[in-house]
Amino acid sequence: MTDDEKDQRVRPGLPRPALGALSGALAGFAALAVAELVAAAVRPQSSPVIAVGGASIDATPAAVKDWAIRHFGTNDKLVLQLGILAVLAVLALVSGALAVRFQRVGTAGVLLLGGIGAAAATTRPDSTGFTDALPSVLGAVAGALFLHVLVGRLTAPARAKAGEPGTTSGEAAGPSPAGWDRRGFVLAAVSAAAASAAVGGVGRSLNASHGKDAVASRDKVVLPDPGSPAHPVPKRAGVRVAGTSPFVTPNTSFYRVDTALVVPKVDATAWRMRIHGRGVRRPAAYSFDDLLRRELIARDITLTCVSNEVGGPYVGNARWTGVRLADLLAECGVKPPPRGGRADQLVARSVDGMTIGTPVEDVMDGRDAMLALGMNGEPLPFEHGFPVRMVVPGLYGFVSACKWIEDIELTTFASYDPYWVKRGWARKAPIKTQSRIDTPKPFARPEAGTVMLAGVAWAQHRGIDTVEVRIDDGRWQEAHLAAEDTRDTWRQWSLPWKATKGSHTLTVRATDRTGTVQTDRRTRTVPDGASGWHSVVVTVE
User: Fold this and answer.
1) pTM of this structure
2) Which of 146, 83, 86 is nearest to 111 (CA)?
3) Cβ neighbours of residue 230 closer than 8 Å, sequence gap 6 or more
4) Which residues fall within 8 angstroms of residue 410, CB to CB, at 6 or more apart?
């Protein structure tokens, strides 16, 4: 056996396609790290993962979005980003494996991924122009260069040192019998990984600090006392039953359902909002300070997301502080359609490009529709729309609750379809009368005896009149209703139940102030909200 053969037997190593795949993974890591750093200089939303994620959300059918929210809840955005990273990892592995034999093909694959990211970034509704393509483009170029260097070490023979297998004493160093540069590859791979980790870490740190001016502007906000304060919450508005949702939902617990993969951080000192469009006789623009100087109102209002399944968690009650939206529209010369107004739809636009359409008549019919600046006694949290968002009692959020608002255009339903309408949701969506059992939880195992049943019911802008509970197929029993705050808030309810051993089905329904009884007909959330009775099954021991 020759010295060359012995060397190959004792040092077989990984097959080159596997090493090529590893090279592709390292190149992909480098590409994302460089893109992250460049995005810190451009804006976080231009990151390829964020841009592609946003484009994916826009292209996803409504039923799939609804499924994701139902199964992943507020973690749906994290799941999407992890999915994108997984796909990118697979494509990087394939590109690397191909590059061992077809180097140009592998390199082209990395550059193609960069092109996809660039296209997604520059076609987003909130794109600021060609600069949004820079993170994807420069990241792809860096990844392609790394792949070229690493694969080059796999295809170019190393120079063996004198005295090593394959050379004789006095013989000059020559090509390694293994056929590729092990030392060079390992050195290049480790260097690439270390450099990528460092660059990516710096990029993540810079992106995390993005929006310091916005944070500082929020910290300086002092909300004036409202000229029209909310009435004190009745002392008996909440039931004293463990497991029931608090009457006022804390800001940190309030649900968040939107399409923003990166929460916009808007500097309140630079924020502006326009009101313009059809039937606007006096277009106007407002700063944050302009709104603070106006008379503020404070109101307790329960919001509900249209993606809330029967018995779901996407409903919350808060005290909102803001400016009456109807007053601003009236000052601009806007009239509702019943009074001869030319526009029947108000389209609110967010800084991230979201568009939400709201009936003008609902905004101007006397309800407490507002541009909210505060939530539960503090400036809006960034996650909930700082500096300004819309709140309209009685309407699902997808037709009323525009966060990070910067533009209001008056138009008609016939001439413009907002974001969600284009994806199969309804143009108009008043909140349906609903109720929920908070305790006991599904599949609970309470002991026989008196068990307190409790929960919440809501029918914003109509109010809740009665709540009834049924045990198995028995008669409906009227529950005790806690005191009503306003017709725009939910009401808590409770009922003592003499529980007997065995499995039981508990069902709840509500009747609103118009006399409408909550329907038992089950519908999904698309296109205008779920309906049906909420039931839980428990086993009494």
Assistant:
1) 0.87
2) 146
3) 298, 299, 300, 319
4) 275, 276, 277, 278, 279, 280, 329, 334, 342, 343, 345, 346, 347, 360
Mean pLDDT taken over the chain = 92
Report the C-alpha gap between 136 and 120 in whole angstroms: 9
CB neighbours of residue 163 within 10 Å: 12
Average pLDDT over residues 510-535: 97
- Cα separation, 461 vs 300, in Å, equals 12
CA dist., res. 324 & res. 320, Å (int): 11
Peptide bond preceding 226: is omega within 30 degrees of 0, i.e. cis? no
Cα distance between residue 292 and residue 100, in whole Å? 63
- With tokens 């093909």, the residue in question is 105
Question: pLDDT digits over 273-308, tens only?
Answer: 999 999 999 999 999 999 999 999 999 999 999 999
Give first-to-last CA distance, the chain, whole Å: 78
Most confident of the following: 59-63, 76-80, 180-184, 524-528: 524-528
**The two three-digit tokens of residue 196, written as one number:** 């990528």
Which amino acid does the sequence have at 17? P
- Could you tell me which residues come within 8 angstroms of residue 134 by beta carbon, excluding any fewer than 6 positions away? 38, 42, 46
Q: Pairing between strand 370-375 and 378-379? A: antiparallel
Rounded CA-CA distance 539/80 in Å is 37
CA 249-251-257 angle, 5° bins:
90
- The Cα-based distances of 520 to 95, 393, 442, 469, 508 in angstroms read 54, 24, 19, 13, 10
pLDDT at 167: 46
pLDDT in tens, 352-362: 999 999 999 99
**DSSP labels for 409-425?**
EEE-TTT---TTGGGT-
pLDDT of residue 24: 94
* DSSP H or E run through 113: helix 103-122
* Count of other CB atoms within 10 angstroms of residue 381: 16
User: Cα separation of 61 and 527, whole Å?
Assistant: 12
